[in-house]
Amino acid sequence: MLIFYVVFGSVNINPVLVATIAFGMNFGAYAAEIFRSGIEGIEKGQMEAGIAMGFNKLKTFIYIILPQTVRRILPIYKGEFISLVKMTSIVGYIAVQDLTKASDIIRSRTFDAFFPLIMIAILYFLISWVLMQALDYIEKITDPKYKRQLRAKS
Question: How far apart are the first and last CA of the chain?
Fold first, then answer.
């Protein structure tokens, strides 16, 4: 709301664009910090080992540091991603049509407060559940133990 009413208050701009910018900046800041802490959590010996094997710094980062970082940060990243989906329920305050705003419109026309809210809760749950399943799959395929189990079965 601050970005819409304060930063872009004097500009006639699409609220969907403002919401995208605001959530993008918020998620980007959290994701950058998650990645930074994940990269710093990898031992310095890993970089030294990659360079000793003949990789340059970029290839060492891409082939050695980054895969280890992704495995470590995925659980945290999953939580942040699902949190972002749930935070989008507040964009109705800046005139963006979303699930929560649609629920408010239905409630104002039908005078039924219970059913629209329950349906929106179920929809948010299903969206979050599907995203969590997809992210769980990504986490599983990045796990080296899972890859070894697949090779053993083949």
Answer: 54
Write out the E strands in the chain: none
Rounded to whole angstroms, the Cα distance separating 69 from 79 reads 16
Contact 94, 4 (CB under 8 A): yes
Overall CATH class of domain 2-153: mainly alpha
User: What band does 94 get if pLDDT is binned at 50, 70 and 90?
Assistant: low
Domain boundaries, the chain: 2-153
Q: Which of 32, 25, 23 is CA-nearest to residue 86?
A: 23
Q: What is the pTM of this model?
A: 0.71
Mean pLDDT of 133-139: 89
